[in-house]
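Q: Hi! First time doing this. I have a protein sequence and I read that you can turn it into a structure. Is that right? Here it is:
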Amino acid sequence: MVTIGNAAFGGCIGLRSITIPSSVMSIENVAFSGCVELMSVTIPNSVKSIGWSAFSGCTSLTSITIPNSVTNISNSVFSGCTNLTSIIVENGNPTYDSRDNCNAIIETGTNTLIAGCKNTIIPDNVITIGDYAFYDCTSLESITIPNSVTSINEGAFESCTSLSTLSLPYGVTTIGENAFYCCDNLTYISIPNSVISIGDWAFADCINLTNVTLPNSLTCINASTFYLCENLNSVNIPNSVTTIEEAAFDGCTALESIIIPNSVNTIGLSAFGECTSLKTITIPNSVTIIDRWAFTRCTNLTTAIIGDGIKKIDHSAFSDCEGLTDFYCYAESVPTTDYEAFLWSNYTNATLHVPSASITTYKTQSPWNRFKSIVALTDSDPLPNSINIVRIESHKTNIFYDFSGRKMQAPKKGFYIMNGKKYIKK
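A: Yes, that's right. Below is the predicted 3D structure, encoded as structure tokens:
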């Protein structure tokens, strides 16, 4: 026998130990997957390759030794091995090592950690945490990522449901797809300014994540990055971001407010869908497209403020917004709007605020003409850049500052700060 084939012993729940004969050269995919009582396995020095998830779900396995003959190990080889505490690669292996007693498998040539366990200590010369390296390691509670790491690959910590403490060092540039997907106990994450890319679904379904700090180096919030983070109540979007992709914050039911910076030009499909605690949304002048279902089922949304740069509001963008009372649109040219943009919303009982010169045009365009009333914008209405307009004369006793923090005695036309708020004098 030279090969233990795909799923050969998969699901053999009564198998407790096995000695693989020295004729075997390959252990194929999921060969011993789900052998929940397997406590001991000896891999002979004849084996050259181990397939993906070969020992996944072997929850009784506590230790494993990789002989120096093995030169090819696929992803997720020990995923779900919740009691695995010791991983050793024999000395002399030309491809892999377990340097510094790290309890992990490291690809020597690339300094990539490809498989870890709950006792892993990542050495300070590891550059990459490989695809699915800690996938389904449900007993991992904390991990220190050294400054040497620049990339956290796809699914690296996916389904590490006990992981509650994590610090990402400056130097990490890439966080892959699903990297922290379904890390149920993760409550906070601060992402350093070195990060330029966060993959789709990277933090999706982190149900206890409450706040996150995004870096100024980020230009895009990718699809489903924070999907179903139902306790996320605080997130900053830096002014480097230009695109918020589909479902980026979909299902973030605790999110009460969010500031979208003037750098953003596109809000993707269902980007904020079912953010049921969101009450007010301000879309800056830079945004030109609000895609389908962008704010669908934001049932407590009462006020939407849309900047003058908007060109298109797509199908059901504000559908099922049952609490909508005021919609401020600063676009003088009526944006191209799907006739069902406000489907099943309360807009037939809401007030539409538009530039006075455009009232007649809005009244002739569907679906805008279905609002209960259409009125002209005034100086006291909220602006799309969250700056209030006030009459300076009524605040002569107050002290004004410019945006550099310098005190202004007699402000001229422009933007100022007073009592911690932004104002404009026209």
